[in-house]
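Data deposition worksheet. Section B asks for the primary sequence of the deposited chain exactly as it was used as input, without tags or linkers unless they were present during the calculation. Section C holds the resulting structure in token form. Section D is free text for depositor observations; keep each observation to a single sentence. Incomplete worksheets are returned to the depositor.
Section A, Depositor: J.P.
Section B:
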Amino acid sequence: MNRRKSRELAMKLLFQMTMNKEDYREVIGNLQENIEHYVKDVEEDIDLTDIDMEYITRILKGVEENRELIDSEIEKYLLNWKLNRLSKIDITIMRICTYEMLFEVDIPNSASLNEALELAKKYSDEKSASFINGVLDKIMKNK
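Section C:
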């Protein structure tokens, strides 16, 4: 299984949850019904065996259930910013990484941070990537 591809798909699904105010169960149900549609958007040559559904479900459920704690952790390090002023994609990326740092003991914090930056470079702009790096690096160092 490919953690990077699974993380990217989890990010897209979490973004969808945020935009549509959906429960993680709904999103996972839709994913299972329409998996081909979702994975082709992640990467054209993806094999369904590359997707770690257990990881994706854990991320979506974990972020949903711990959102207040995750958001308050992120907000501690937003200098002169409020969470609601950030782009939804940037918030989504930071929520996944922060969740992993706080709750996924088998994922090294540096790997979570690096993957968050790769997602930011791909789905956000250059300034966002450095901003996200600054916030997540502070979370990692003060954890």
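Section D:
The radius of gyration is 14 Å.
The chain is about 75% helix and 0% strand.
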